[in-house]
Structure formats: structure tokens, C-alpha cells
Write a structure and sequence with these properties.
Keywords: Lipid biosynthesis, Lipid metabolism, Membrane, NADP, Oxidoreductase, Peroxisome, Transmembrane, Transmembrane helix. The chain is α/β, with parallel strands linked by helices. Helix content is about 55%, strand content about 10%. The mean pLDDT is about 95. Bound molecules: Palmitoyl-CoA (PKZ) and NADPH dihydro-nicotinamide-adenine-dinucleotide phosphate (NDP). NADPH dihydro-nicotinamide-adenine-dinucleotide phosphate (NDP) binds near residues 45 and 114.
Length: about 525
């Protein structure tokens, strides 16, 4: 039997961020591969008017659990939700729940974080740094703790070009910074944020860098490992190819391109697009949990979980495969025909934004107004442009991550484990993966049925005809205005028309002769 699966059987696992994208895939794989796991505690907060219990009840109904539901119909009995809020003192966990965790938990996977790039610094610190600190304090008292696995990001040190599997010194003393933001006024923090975060592009990557250092400080107390995934995308194989459930990372942009909304994007076509399938990250997490608990490495092991150095693929190639997949499998009710101008030139990108985003949006909003409806396209584009601006830091440059620890871990696995917990991205076939990603986004994120493809194709044909008709009318109008004002343009026009006429007469004459 697989050593990794066997290790988790009989163990109690604590997961933070279990309601998130990666948390759900982690829970599903753990419960499916180790059905005899003792319990999976998850820290959940009430949200959007739903209690913790309601959220968990809805979550277990999600499609992501279909496979485990088939294999072990009572899988939800293993899930033990704990009411918690990571930004509150003691994580707002009740004394009774806390006691239960302290006496039971063997392995912790810390996934909870705010991943928003525009998160105010105070909140990002509260959750990503202070929340992590509180969890570490709790972990210190866990009597049976064997491994603490912290999920960071490959971009935590994106101010460096070559990123080794080490923890870099933090830019500031974390405690001093947390004290400072605690008493400073929100508006002042907002104002000094760019100065504080220095050469980090956003508060997310900055606070993830600070959290790594905090985690490392606990190395005397328990076994720790840090995993740094790059841009986590739809799953490669598990639970289903192309499974995805949020718009983060590249997914939002891919969908916007498929819907024909995004027609231009600022990327360096030759820069490496370091996408990593979610199931690869989850398999690595479970393998690292096992390795850390069983082999107890003396130092804090950092695992860069990236594809660029092993099986590189560029943004230009991604763009090509996304567009061609959506032409073959169109999304429903697309705004325009999928097409993506990808350039790193700011002026060219601005030109295309004006011509292929703003102008059509204005025209469409004008049409909506004329037909008595509320204009909405410009608003959508403004949001898209804001997202594009926040993401361009990651799409216009490349990084190099070393991945020796991931390779080392692979050599430690039995052939069975390597198959069941596959994180060998050398086997990843990019064009196939991107195709499944796009189709997965259509099915799981937009809830579109594949049987609607013929109608979607029909809609694309209609859009193509509208586009041809519009372009021809525009050309004729411009040309007419031009001809009316310039003798030279008139001469060129007559010359072109007479040339066409001669060609037509020639072809007619030659075809008559052949008959
Ligand atoms: C041909 C194509 C090639 C592609 C070529 C470019 C790929 C370019 C990838 C770079 C990828 C770098 C990744 C760095 C590496 C990590 O570390 S990945 C960490 C993951 N973090 C993220 O990706 C977070 C990025 N997102 C954000 O920070 C915020 O969502 C934004 C972009 C600031 C937008 O904020 P907002 O306007 O307040 O919108 P927000 O409240 O988040 O969402 C409102 C709605 O829009 C949806 N939405 C959110 N973001 C988007 C989006 N981008 N698009 C559409 N809808 C969205 C939400 O689901 C939400 O839906 P509802 O819940 O209302 O139904
Ligand atoms: N997605 C990506 O591309 C990448 C992600 N990562 C890292 O992986 C981890 C998981 O990311 P991902 O699953 O994508 O993120 P999601 O945004 O999908 O999930 C975040 C999770 O954190 C929980 N959470 C947020 N705030 C709190 C809070 N105050 N108290 C309790 N729980 C909270 C959320 O709970 P709720 O449902 O209540 O909001 C949710 O379960 C993060 O640490 C992230 O930094 C690293 C690299 C790339």
C-alpha cells in the first residue's frame, strides 16, 4: 500500500482555509486516498449570512466531492468543523474546541489567507501574518503534533529574480510593523503602504514573505515545512480534469478572453507563465506532510512548487491555446469573437484597449440605452482593466525558482506513491492541460452545459457576420468622407474600381472560352 495514504489513516488533520479553492481539493484527496483518517478538523467562519454549519453543509454537496462521495458515501462524518476567525485573538476558537484540537491534531495544513492583491495592508497583516502567528501559538501546545505545513506563494520573494528554497530575511521586523499598524489611522497606513512594501508589488506577496519568517521561528518547537506554489490553476487530473471554482490567478482572464471581453492584455509573450495545476500542489502537500512527520528533517524545508524550471511554457503559447480552445468550444453568449492581442508594449496595449475594449463597450452601452436598458459594459471593462493592471507585474517578467527539494522528495517516494501522489510536472502536456482548463472553467465555474456548444457556435457565427457588416460599413463611410474631400483619394478609388472591373471581365471571358 501507499506509505503516504497509510500514514494519514488513523491520523487527525487540521486544515485552515478548507472552504477555499485549494482547501477543498486537499480535503477531497485526503478523504479519498486515506478513508480511515481519524478526523479532519476545519476552521470555518460564518460568512455572507450563513452560519458555519450551513456553509459546511453546502460545501460537502459541491461537485468537487463527487468522487469521494462515490468511494466513501459517509465521508462528511470525518469532517469536523470548528468555528474560527483567524483575525481575532486566539482565532476566536472556543475553549472546548481548543482543548479538542490540542489533544487530537497530528498534522496541520495552513492554507487560509487573503489572496487579494488590493487588500489594505492592515487586513493583510492581520490575517496572513498575525493569524499565522496565532495558529503557530496554538500548534505549539498541540500534544501530538507531527508536522506543520505552511502554504506560502512562489511570489513571496518576487523582488528577487532567482529564488532558492530558503527563507529570506524579512524586510522589516514583523512585530514592530504589526504594532505600528495597530495604532495608526487607516488612511495614513494606506498612504504609507507603497513605502512600507518597497519593491514588493502588493500587500499579499509582502505579508506572505513576513509570514514565512514567522513560521521558521517555530522550528525548535515542531516539524515545519513551507510550500510555495506559483500560479495555481485548474486541476490536471483530480478530482476531474479542469476542475476550478474561482476567478483568481489566470482563471478570470482566461474566462474574460473566452467571453470575448478581453481582447488585449499586457503580457510578455516570451515570459514563462508559471502555472501549476491545483492537484499537483495538493499531492505535494500530502507528500510533504508525510515526509516531514516521518523523516523529521532537521531544518525547515522549503518546497518551491513551480513548473517554469522543469517544463516551461510561455504566456504567448497560453494565449494561443486559450483562444483556439474557445473557438472550438465557445462559451455561451460571448460579447465578441475570442481574440487576444498580447503585447508588453504599453502604448500598443493602450491603443488596443481604446479600439477593442472601450469603443465597443461605449457602442454597446449606447445600444442598451437606446433599447431602454441599463448600460453595464463600461463598468465591466473598468473592472477588467483594474484586474489587468494588478496582474501585469506577473505577466511581464520571468522568475527562476530552484526545485531541488521537490525533486529530492520524488526520489523518496515508492513507485506506488509517485503514481497516487503525482507531482512530476515533467509529464504535463501543456496544450492538453490548457484545453481542459478552459473546458473546466466553462463547466464548473460558469455552469455551462457542453450540449449548448452548437448554439454557442451559432452565436459566434452571428457575431462574425455583425463584425463583417460593421467593418464594411465603417470602411465605406470613412472612404466616402475621404473621397468627397480629396482628388487623390478619388483617383485611387477609381483606379481600384477599374482594376477590379478588369479582373472580373478577364475571369468572365476566360471561363466563357473554357466552355
Ligand atoms: C488569452 C488569456 C491569457 C491570460 C493571460 C493573463 C493571465 C494573468 C494571470 C496572472 C496571475 C498572477 C498571479 C500571481 C501569483 C499568485 O500568488 S496567485 C494568488 C491569487 N490571487 C489572485 O489572483 C487575486 C487577484 N484578485 C484580486 O486581487 C481581486 O479579485 C481584484 C482583481 C483586485 C478584483 O477586485 P474587485 O473588483 O473588488 O472584484 P472582486 O470582489 O474580487 O470580485 C467581484 C466578482 O468578480 C469576479 N472576479 C474576480 N476577479 C476576476 C477576474 N480577474 N476576472 C473576472 N472576474 C473576476 C469574482 O469572482 C466576483 O464574483 P461575484 O462573487 O461577485 O459573483
Ligand atoms: N490560488 C493561487 O493561485 C495561490 C494560492 N497560494 C496560497 O494558497 C493558499 C490557499 O489559496 P486559495 O485556496 O487559492 O485561496 P482562497 O481565497 O480560495 O481561500 C482562502 C481561504 O482562507 C479562508 N479565510 C480567509 N480569511 C479568513 C479568516 N479571517 N478566518 C478564517 N478563514 C479565512 C477562506 O475562508 P472563507 O471561505 O470564509 O472566505 C478560504 O477558506 C493561500 O495561503 C494562498 O496564499 C499560493 C500561491 C498561489
Amino acid at each position: 500500500m501507499s506509505s503516504i495514504a497509510a500514514y494519514y489513516n488513523g491520523k487527525t488533520v487540521l486544515i485552515t482555509g478548507a472552504t477555499g479553492f485549494m482547501g477543498k481539493v486537499l480535503m477531497e484527496k485526503l478523504l479519498r486516498s486515506s478513508p480511515d483518517v481519524e478526523a479532519v478538523y476545519i476552521l470555518v467562519r460564518p460568512k455572507a449570512g450563513q452560519s458555519m454549519q450551513e456553509r459546511v453543509a453546502n460545501m460537502v454537496k459541491s461537485k468537487v466531492f463527487d468522487r469521494v462521495r462515490e468511494d466513501c458515501p459517509n465521508f462528511q462524518e470525518k469532517i469536523k468543523p470548528i468555528n474560527a476567525e483567524l483575525t481575532q485573538p486566539n482565532l476566536a476558537i472556543s475553549a472546548k474546541d481548543s482543548q479538542e484540537l490540542l489533544s487530537q491534531v497530528n498534522v496541520v495544513f495552513h492554507c487560509a489567507a487573503t489572496v487579494r492583491f488590493d487588500e489594505p495592508l492592515k487586513h493583510a497583516l492581520l490575517l496572513n501574518v498575525m493569524g499565522t502567528q496565532q495558529l503557530l501559538l496554538l500548534a505549539r501546545q498541540m500534544q501530538k503534533l507531527e508536522a506543520f505545513i505552511h502554504i506560502s506563494t512562489a511570489y513571496a520573494n518576487c523582488n528577487k529574480r532567482n529564488i532558492e528554497e530558503v527563507i529570506y530575511p524579512p524586510p522589516v521586523e514583523t512585530k514592530k510593523l504589526c504594532d505600528l499598524v495597530e495604532w495608526l489611522d487607516e488612511s495614513i497606513i494606506q498612504e504609507i503602504t507603497p513605502k512600507l512594501i518597497g519593491d514588493w508589488p502588493n500587500t499579499y506577496t509582502y505579508t506572505k514573505a513576513l509570514a514565512e519568517y514567522l513560521v521558521q521561528q517555530e522550528k525548535e518547537h515542531f516539524n515545519i515545512a513551507i510550500i510555495r506554489p506559483s500560479i495555481v490553476g485548474a486541476s490536471w487530473h483530480e478530482p476531474f480534469p479542469g476542475w476550478i471554482d474561482n476567478f483568481n490567478g489566470a482563471s478570470g482572464m482566461i474566462i474574460a478572453a473566452g467571453k470575448g471581453i478581453l481582447q488585449t492584455v499586457k503580457v510578455n509573450n516570451d515570459a514563462v507563465a508559471d502555472l501549476i495545476p491545483v492537484d499537483v500542489v495538493i499531492n505535494l502537500m500530502l507528500a510533504v506532510g508525510w515526509y516531514t512527520a516521518v523523516h523529521r528533517p532537521k531544518t525547515v524545508m522549503v518546497y518551491n512548487c513551480t513548473t517554469g524550471g522543469i517544463n516551461p511554457f510561455c504566456w504567448g503559447e497560453i494565449g494561443y491555446h486559450v483562444i483556439s480552445t474557445f473557438k472550438r468550444n465557445p462559451l455561451e453568449q460571448t460579447f465578441r469573437i475570442p481574440k487576444a492581442q498580447m503585447t508588453s508594449n504599453h502604448l500598443i496595449n493602450q491603443y488596443w484597449i481604446t479600439v477593442s475594449h472601450k469603443a465597443p463597450a461605449m457602442l454597446y452601452d449606447f445600444y442598451l440605452r437606446l433599447t431602454g436598458r441599463k448600460p453595464r459594459m463600461m463598468k465591466i471593462f473598468n473592472r477588467l482593466h483594474k484586474s489587468m493592471m494588478l496582474l501585469e507585474y506577473f505577466t511581464c517578467q520571468s522568475w527562476e525558482w530552484s526545485s531541488e527539494n521537490m525533486n529530492m522528495l520524488m526520489t523518496q517516494l515508492s513507485p506506488e506513491d509517485r503514481r497516487l501522489f503525482n507531482f512530476d510536472v515533467r509529464q504535463l502536456h501543456w496544450s492538453e492541460y490548457i484545453e481542459n482548463y478552459c473546458i473546466g472553467a466553462k463547466k464548473y465555474l460558469l455552469n455551462e452545459d457542453m450540449s449548448g456548444i452548437p448554439a454557442a457556435k451559432q452565436h459566434l457565427r452571428k457575431l462574425r457576420n455583425i463584425q463583417y457588416a460593421f467593418n464594411t460599413t465603417l470602411l465605406v463611410i470613412i472612404w466616402r468622407i475621404f473621397i468627397a474631400r480629396s482628388q487623390m483619394a478619388r483617383n485611387i478609388w477609381y483606379f481600384v474600381v477599374s482594376l477590379c472591373y478588369k479582373f472580373l471581365s478577364y475571369f468572365r471571358a476566360s471561363s466563357t472560352l473554357r466552355h
